[in-house]
Give the backbone structure.
Amino acid sequence: MNLATTTQAWITRVEHKLDTVLPADTQHPQKLHQAMRYSVLGGGKRIRPLLVYASGVSLGAPIEALDAPAAAIELMHAFSLVHDDLPAMDDDELRRGRPTAHIAFDEATAILAADALQPLAFKVIATDPDLRVTAETRLRMIQLLADACGSLGMTGGQSIDLSSEGRKLSAAQLEHMYKLKTGCLLEASVLAGAITAGANDATVELLKRYIDNLGLAFQIRDDVLDVEGATEVIGKQQGADIERNKATWPALFGMAAAKQKSAELLEAALREIESLGAAADPLREIARYMVSRCM
């Protein structure tokens, strides 16, 4: 596959779907809807929707059926970012190269915008007419998304992250935090595509192993970029994790070990999908991009 061409086509699809399902910024209450659209449509790499498409396409799902789960996953991701950036959380002022939602609007509006994005994600899965799957499959996706964003998913991971500032964690503790904060929604992305395609249990299990390795590699790479990446390139304040004394892989084990670990995990992820053959090339290309990215 031509990664650049394919991913841009997928990004165009999901952004069209997002633009469609989000309330118009002229609809009352306008300020809330403007903040919702600002938080979702402000760029970004769209990694999670890309994983939905890559997984679904690799397993034979029709592309139009993947738009709804891809959009729902991105809405949930945007919800988490707005909350993570708040003064009570990470207190960030820059996201995707521009002011965070609470800076661009105000703190109350940012909280409400995030709160509105979460149920919208579930509504898309429940009602989108292009998602031509059974009611049971829709329920399965809803449960998948709920688990990924709950207290045993990314919300729990954020809680652990906040409580770990200034503490030294073991590798196992750090991996657990990463699994919840980042890995659960990445897993939901891959599995949403697989479920849309009607994948069997064996395929779902190997995809879980694939994304477990890839998700950890992705988060470690993000830690590396916090140290080495330029603010104008990564779209958020460089060195923010260091400033807050957060537990990260480079902080605990050094940059060389972090880069080596990320590379090893990528190879482990790719081994897990060898049995899928050439059809899984989209998953391979997305994995390489996620770990080698410089932005």
